[in-house]
Amino acid sequence: MHFTLYLSPQTPGPEMDGAIMEAAVENAILADQAGFRGIALTHHHFSNYNTYGNSFVFGAYLAGQIKQAWLLMQVAVAPLLNPLKLVEDANLLDQLWRGRFIMGIGSGGSPLEFEGFGRDPASRGELTAEVMDVAYRAWKHKPGDLPLEYRTRHESGLMRGRIMPGPYRKGHPLLARAALSEPGWADAGRKGHPLFFGRVGLEGAVRAMKAYDGALADAGWSKEHVEFCKEWTTIQKTVLIAEDDDTAQQLIDEPLNNLQALSKAAFAAYGDEQRKAVTGVSGDDPAAFRKSFVEGATIVGSPATFIDKLKQYEDAGIRHVALHMNFGAMRPEVTRQTLDLFIDKVMPKFS
């Protein structure tokens, strides 16, 4: 089993942004030294959900400091991006990371973020298709070709030159598909993309891998490519580890309450129904929020409990887990305790 450190630290406010990003960089370097397979960045704006905001710039900053791990974009929200800018930024990260880069593509969903960029979240699927159609055309465009003319419902232009830089890998950077439902899981397999998924429990993971593995096999991909896809297919889990289960359950109360408040504030203008549709959780009852979030999205407990849970996912065919260790404006020392315990007591059982 492989592990990725999922960096999406929430922030209580601008006065803490610098310290939170500094701690995220320190944790990424430590994870890289410990043998983590990847460092994952998320793509969020305006909501206090992602402190660094511009994941492409942050990924470029990390490139010179991470020596072995790959960079995973989990995920680039295509509808919010100019397609040529998406290609340009992805190519730059592909070069800086020397091909150790996989960009997941997703359609997003937070109305706050879509509104900020003048997009309609109800059209996110169509917008994603439009942006990616232009992106693939741009990756195929060669010097000397006729100018590339493009139009989406939000962007238009004429590219007479070329995308600079070109990608490190032939054609375009490695791509993955983010999906939370069976049609998306199967589509990722048919197209031969690694699958990024989360917010499902063990039963959901079994269903996801069955749909994905079946589609991979039916599509006729080579054995080598199938192995690559399975190695980089990741389930994301929000995690907290303490020396014993009781302490872990006590420590998670503060970040869960913070996360509930952040979620409520981000969707205050859009209604609880929209909030549940995007996040999977809603309501003001802390106990209900905790139950809904913990059952599918988290692993909380002692190292022994954590090992047992991970082995269940391993038996279900999960080879790679992205671990979200800093959530709900968590205190840095709690995040660091989780990372240290994972490296010292959990990781050796799966190496």
Automatic annotation (TrEMBL):
A Pfam family recorded for this sequence: Bac_luciferase
Keyword Oxidoreductase among record annotations: yes
GO cellular component terms, A-Z: cytosol
SUPFAM superfamilies linked to this entry: Bacterial luciferase-like (SSF51679)
Keyword annotations from UniProtKB, A to Z: Monooxygenase, Oxidoreductase, Plasmid
Xref: InterPro entries: Bact_Lucif_Oxidored (IPR050766), Luciferase-like_dom (IPR011251), Luciferase-like_sf (IPR036661)
Domain Luciferase-like: 1-320
This protein's record includes keyword Oxidoreductase: yes
GO molecular function: monooxygenase activity; oxidoreductase activity, acting on paired donors, with incorporation or reduction of molecular oxygen
The protein, known as: Luciferase-like monooxygenase
Top-level taxonomy: Bacteria, Pseudomonadati, Pseudomonadota, Betaproteobacteria, Burkholderiales
